Amino acid sequence: MVEVHVVPALTDNYIHILHDAAHGVTVVVDPGEAAPVRAVLADRGWRLTHILATHHHGDHIGGITDLQADSHAMLIGPRAEIDRIPEMDATYGEGDLFTLGSQTVHVFDTPGHTRGHCAFFFEEARLLFSGDTLFSLGCGRLFEGTPAQMWDSLSKLRALPGDTRLYCGHEYTASNLRFALSIDPENAALKARAEEVAALRAKGLPTIPSRLLDEQAANPFLRADDPGLAAHFGLASASPSAVFAAIRKAKDDFRG
What residues are annotated to the active site? Predict the structure, then answer.
């Protein structure tokens, strides 16, 4: 029903292009630059109809102006960043729904990486575009939010159906994996994911998308309420947000 292309961009970014042929809808998510998007569109003969932005950072919106000049595509983004993403045509926030072709799109406010970050969940196709909130085996740095905010944001995304495919904004999986193994070395799901990641990267392939079910089992940032991780940090009686804060600090300091 919906075709998705993961397009490498800049240094380690991913731009995601969705095509719904039956409805004539082509969507690009977080285009940090225009050239690779233009190349995919030209190769497939698609016309860009919509642009989705999860947050205002330049490596996620840098190509929007040029792509709009090409196509006059409708720009959709977070209401909470209306003053930070220029000339949005429609803005949405927590709990809002809108339709793109065959898909009902759910909007989640996911502050933490930025104060107005959002994520988009395509219900029928089970696609989650998380920007820099949730990565495979990781999460975004807290540039503008608190650990409690980010834990709340991740908890919303963790609750989505397990067969959801996660499309995030960067290829960070291998480095996230090294950190995750350092704090959770006996996790069987994490070991299995390590084999998958190694095989994909050896072929030069993206590690995205990943299944949310696998992230729920292996991603330490989605498991701050796990007693084993709490014990690892000496926080057995602490709140999940406090454990999450410890995990995030450990990742920030990690040099493995």
Answer: 55, 57, 59-60, 113, 132, 170
